[in-house]
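Quick check before the chapter quiz. The format below is the same one you will see on the exam, so make sure you can read both the input and the output lines.
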Amino acid sequence: MAQTQDHTYIGTRPIRPDGLEKVTGKANFGADTTQPGMLHGAVLRSPHAHAQINAIDPADALALDGVYAVVTAADFPARTDISVGRKRFFENILASKKTLYNGHPIAAVAAQTKALAEQAAQLIRVDYTVLEHVLDMREAMQPEAPLLHEDMFTQGLPTPPEKPSNISQFTTLTKGDVAAGFAQADVIIERTFTTPMVHQGYLEPHACVADKQADGNCHLWCSSQGHFGIRDMAALALGMDTGQICVQPAEIGGGFGGKTVVYLEPLAIKLSEKTGRPVKMVMTRDEVFRATGPAPGTINTVKIGCTRDGKITAMAADLLFESGAFPGSPLGAGAMCIFAPYDVANIHIEGNEVVVNKPRVAAYRAPGAPQAMFAGESVLDELAQALGLDPIDLRLLNAAKEGSRATYGPKFKKIGFIECLQAAKSHPHYSQPLGANQGRGVAAGFWFNAGNNSSAEVHVAESGMIQIVEGSPDIGGSRAAMAIMAAEKLQIPYERIKVRIGDTQSTGFCNTTGGSRTTFATGMAVINACDDIINQLKGRAALTWGIEADQVDWHNGSAHPKPGINVDAPPLTLAKLARAFPKTGGPISARASLNAQGPGPSFAVNLCDVEIDPDTGKTHVVRYTAIQDAGRAIHPDYVEGQMQGGAAQGIGWALNEAYVYNHQGAQDNPGFLDYRIPVASDLPMIDTKIVEVHSDTHPYGVRGVGETPIVAPLAAVASAVSHAIGKRMPDLPLTPERVLDALEQTR
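Here is the expected output.
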């Protein structure tokens, strides 16, 4: 395992800065904001999966006492000069000519109370012509299928198509000669795997408050994964300048990728504009399921060939991703990730994205990778079984390493996949004997990680306390991570640093918290700003001592004359320098903005043991171990929490979770009673092992850790179940009924 540099604060486990407010209930989340004179909004949603909208009549709703306004798509700016993709964005906020899924917003109402707004919404009369809908991807791809968009032509084909279709995108990735690779193989296995549409399962519904003022400016309070992104999307929908909207971030009660898109915000702003009063909108759980972005269902076919000694000669994949009613699935990311852990000369991946009459999908932790790698890792598991090889040894024989070229283009720099495999093989879990009706699964996970734009400010108070202001919402403990990195750089106690998430008008631009980018990119901005602070402090110390700034060192939280510099004075601590600010030039602050490049990719290996009840088919996860390369764990508790959380979500995806639709195209399980996410009694204690292979593109070696944990569990659980029952299980979720049926076939 790679050696890591000794640090004072990095790698420690201090209490999170926002912990006390959250456990005592004092933290403000999206629905907690109130404003004087505030109205409440509600949305009328389509009862049809596919229908033409002939007319909308709000008269009965507006006749109710206490109802102030109704908005429809006609109230938003006409955008005739925009691309087809932007048009889809607007149509998902409010349907105009057609409704494309059950739950599609048709109109919104502002009223004195939420109950009254909901009542009024149901009084809006809509004249529909119901159209044939399509929910199945394979059916949607047929020439005779009902078209969702008459102006949508498949993108990415070598020859532009002449007719529209429900296939929105075709993509390919190729490396080497896959036909020649398969010709060299002694063993070839090809299988098709399916995964359902699933929800991120965040506990806090979408919520916002908007206050549009008479001067055209707007203040917006909301819970999101990126308030700058919300600002930009809301401005686009409303035809406003981004500078007119100030978004104040609330704490976030979970997102996992699902809170990166606007749903309510443009509606609340438009209702506030019409009424001249603040408007609050909060989704019900039913609305969250029916009308926000889940992860896509997929049908993925994988073919892998290898020699008798286990050397992989070729890998091929045919990926089919549903995107819901509008284009925008993570097909590309799935194609990038599926075979990324392996150094194989011949690879061919192609995929299609298909629109169906379901809500438009959104990101869900490592979007696209869990579904794709479920297929790839399952075939590798079956290959190891066919060859009589240990599944970890098969992966070690073909593992990507520094210098390996990924299918999607770049050569890997220093990576930790081999170290993760070695840690898995030597883990006590891997040698533990299995009991009756038990099986063990092994799977790898990968995510390429993101960098992008971040900003941060660092201010020194008169007492020497440090205030950090940055624009990345804290989802997984980023406040603590920023404070730890600042403490390490400045060499002052963690407790002397406070971190605030600034609104869009009080801090510099930050991309959305997603893609495992925040600790890497925003952390780098904090580090750069702290470097500036240190240089300024050294200048103040030099002024005090009457020497040059380049004759001053900074260590242990103090300025010191460099060796050989004749200064008869004790070191100047940050606190002493801060108290002298009025005499040495005034306050000290620093700002840093950057576009972070080269985020180190992250690899994981998961081990899962299950036990099957032969009478009911119920799967019980008896042991689970998650192993992952974090580069450098800034706060190990939060890294372990990410690993455990991803495992829990992946276990639910593998065993229980799925959107269920009826013949009318309506979801039958839009709530946590019938859409069953794992609870504590469903899970074992999830063991973790953090591997640390330093990433050279970050000052402290950081790799993002938020996405990778959810990638391996689908395959690890499914392979464990397959071994326990003696039959490969290619279709998720592995419900008791499905497992019992497979058991009956093997008896």
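If your answer matched, good. Residues 518-545 form the longest helix (28 residues).
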